[in-house]
Structures
1.
Amino acid sequence: MLDAARRLKYRHNLQARQLRTGRSEVVGILAWGLSGGVNLARYQAVERAIRAGGYRALMGHAAGDEELRLQLAKEFASSAVEGVIVLNTGGAHDAAVQVLVERGVPIVSMEPLEGLSADVVTVDRRAGAHLVTKHLLELGHRRIAFLCGKLTVPANAERFQGYREALGEHGCSPDEALLVRIARSDTWGHYGQGYEAGQRLLAVRPLPTAVFCNNDEVAIGAMRSLGEAGIRIPEDVAMAGFDDAEAAAYAPVPLTTLAQPVQEQAARAVSLLFERIAKPDEERQPHAIRLTPRLVVRASCGAAAGRKRICEH
């Protein structure tokens, strides 16, 4: 049969199949941006999970453009996609996601959503930030800087909350001078912004003995900036990131970080979406699943080298 199909130059007609079955077997993926290493890894894991379930993936990448993201959401809502995975969001209130929810498109978000009723499978950034800050505190650090993204973004706010709570549990109060904001408008931060934040960090006196960064790209950028100023990692300043992007293990000093459970998150998000698609009329409360990241200790925090405990009060 396959040989006959090849001789006749048969081409599978998806539109005809949709008319016959009433289903497109297409799932949309809505992404604010894929610039971060972990975002690309998450996209790849989601696409594989969608294909493994017998569906095709249709990518909608806004590249940080809010108007384009809204347009993509409207196109998904008016097209034949059977559901949408929201890969990442552009802020606390996401108008694009609201369009999908209001038009009854089944969605599962991989980022926190505020004020919208939808399934969410996300990473517990609060627990992760608490874990890595506690690790630095247990190494003896008390002046721990935080290179942070916009705190209006829920994922960033969760990181700050975990950082602050860990400090409080060890009798430390967050010092405003140690909160170094990542410049410009990007939500998460990249290498160049980390480099610039590292330069601003050099002006803080006394210099912090440890730095927790919003993500690995920011940490690696800051690491370069500090290195150019003669600051040694981890001898002078310990460094930690978030995500465990591929670059973290290959940084000039291998980076201590928090590994996001990308494969599990993608598998559970796609599974939930398939359940919604299979039972469109079933009424149930949205799921809110939070997966805990794993601490990966490498050389940048000094723990592996058994560094001298530093107690700054």
2.
Amino acid sequence: MQLKRYSTTDLERLLSSLTEAGDSYLTIYVEPGFFPQYIVDLKLEPEWQVLVDGVKVAVAQEAVVVAAEKYGTGAAIFWSEGADKYLIIPPFPLGENRISTGVPDISPIKAVLKRKYLLGVALVAWGSYALGVFNGDRLVDCKIGTGYIHKRHRKGGRSERRFARRTEEQKKDFLRKVANRLDERFGSLVLDYIFFGGNRLILKPLVRECRYLQSNAAKLSSRVLEVRYADREALIRSYGEITTSLVFSF
């Protein structure tokens, strides 16, 4: 088993090559919430069941389980005896459970890749934030900001406790500020999905402070984007990570 990260362009190229790979493929689409149980319960005609059994072994691999949980978008599986086998976790959710045999059916995943999404992105690290809206691959709106948070005091005793309390208050003030900016920036929009990046410990308290995130929790991706410092450059780079697919080959 091998795992690679594919851009949309590279994945479309791979999918096109699959349609020329023969007519002995089992194609399985599993939407979020049904993976991997849909496959575990799957039974087909005897001539295809041997392929199903191979898929069941693949979806039980720890790396696949972890990736599927991280993305939460379902999976597209292209499986054939004696040919290349792929399990693809797309960047956005698949909309149906679907099975076909013969020539690989790439239409559902291509539709996911081709769709133009309106995305909200919130990158937040302690002391910096970058909020953006992508319409397709274009950054159409952004708000960059900072907030002062005192560094940890190491002298000990009352002084250390006093600075710790001050730091906690500064963090709360910063989160309220970011939450207000999120409500202002995203409040009038009907976003398809929302992505958070930065310090993962910030996400839960930020959601508690932000009305928009609370009311749109179903649109918040389960992924946390890797960001050390939240600025415009990180915001622009985030689109590449958001649209990356994970491809397991067997």
3.
Amino acid sequence: MRHRLSPTLPPEMLKRYLSLVSDVARQGMTDVRRSVNELRPDALEQRDLLSAIHKMISQMSATSKVEITLDNSAGRLALGEDEEEVIYRIIQESITNSIRHGKADKVRIWMTREYNIVTITIKDNGVGAPNIEPGFGLTHMKERLDMLGGKIHVDGSDGFCLMAEIPIRWGKEND
């Protein structure tokens, strides 16, 4: 049965229609965001992981006027595409969250490796979040890490700090 929205439509029916439309729109946006995030970043198609991260940091720093630094003691690693994508997306999403939600003007990133674990730590000087409620970004990071057997830890008590541990397959170091 098809209804036209008109002044004669009962208010409760109108509320149900609007709620349904809102739910469909919200689900559509979630589906679009998920699809976009599943695509391999162009930066990783065109360059190695570290070069792609440096380019992203440079662009984000220039457009936001936020001081972003990377301390990499892990060196150049031979990683699978899935591992590279997870590392790139975690850094990208963390910087975005630091700027957008944390209002940070400094973001520091550490990348270390101990045996077959790469640890990415991102710390900002923003407003923090005493009660962290995972939104799309944190949830998606956790899902990606779960697929690799990784872990994520967050702390919003002093600015915001995210630590991701990513087990990597044994490969050769390139340096």
4.
Amino acid sequence: MPRGHDTASPLKKFTALLTSVLIVGAAVIWLGWGGQITDWLNTLGFDFSKLAEIIEQTPVEGEIQVHVIDVGQGDSILIRSADGTILIDAGTNAAEDDLRAYLDACGVQTIDYFVCTHPHEDHIGGADMVINRYDVDTVLMMPTESSTATVTRLLDAIEEQDVTLVTPELSESFRVGQMAFTVLAPEAEMADSGNNASIVVKLMWGATSFLFTGDAEAEAERAILDRYPSWELKCDFLKLGHHGSYTSTCEEFLTAVSPTMVAISCGYDNDYGHPHREVLNRLADHGITEENILRTDKSGTVVVASDGYTVYKMN
């Protein structure tokens, strides 16, 4: 057979020609209307700027555990993996001994990131104890004009222990080995406005995600909805804002986040009536079953875990 003789069948030639035409056609369409196509997809909740990040995401190894610690009418959340430790808030002054006992029982010695969501006593009451007792690398905290005794003790402890204090920026990400979390709030204009000044973080572990909202109320939630597409807010696990108060977990936010499991940190028979019936009804309306509504007032400390593919209860 002469060298260079074309042995391709007519069908193969047609297929190759058709493929070339489709590629060229797609390129022409993209050059002419790529911007409009991208805008249209963005309205559907898809963000091309995140495509590379999604493609490059690699599976994680091992397990992550999230402990919603029973600190009564307050918040404290311990997040651990083989890579390190994150603590979000530190409960009330009254619950300081309980928090210390729990962290010690878990074998905590070092804390890579300590997120103080906002300067209310029920969230940072035990923060000075944490910094003085454990090896804390970095504290994430918004600037505050508050001068309460609780805030003063916290700031003094940070200075005395020479801990790095960072004011996180919106959309800023932090990493501890395979653990990565991103700051979604507060907006600059809410940085010193009580509950709505709460630092809100989304943590990724493989294909699963967790959202921790401090005491963020509906105003802050709507600001998050305005800033981020709904697909970026979807999570498997949501720690409800403000202890399950009706002021938080608004309908629009719950729809966007669409969790399968939620946690509510509140004290037994608390004076505020948390969690409020309105919020429990919203959760039920969104198909979140009672067994997937984890409450510290009913169950004490609750622990969930993820293997990178599924979020499941540990207790």
